[in-house]
Design brief:
With 81 residues, the chain is α+β, with helices and mostly antiparallel strands. It has one domain. It contains two helices and five strands; from the N terminus they run αβββββα. Strands 1-2-3-4-5 form a five-stranded antiparallel beta sheet, covered by helices on one side. The protein is globular. The relative contact order is 0.21.
């Protein structure tokens, strides 16, 4: 598992109650809330791709650190409760 994904998981778990993760490979993890997949996070080298509701959002890892991505996903998840 990539270091970016590891740090992202730690950050998001500390911000959102009840969030779990399902690793689908070395660089891919599912973000689950209540047992359902809410987002898929893929580490693609210089970029991280987040898929939510079949839409891809591509972030440059140079500017989007794991804690910033965790903040963004936390806001999304809190709006979907």
């Amino acid at each position: 598992m990539s270091e970016y994904i590891k740090q992202f998981k730690i950050q998001l778990a500390s911000k959102v109650r009840g969030v779990t993760f399902q690793d689908r490979g070395a660089n891919v993890t599912n973000v689950l809330v209540g047992g359902s997949v809410r987002a898929v996070v893929k580490d693609e080298g210089d970029y991280v791709v987040v898929t939510i509701d079949n839409k891809d959002f591509k972030y440059d890892k140079w500017y989007t650190k794991p804690q910033h991505l965790a903040d963004t996903i936390a806001v999304y998840l809190s709006s979907k409760k």
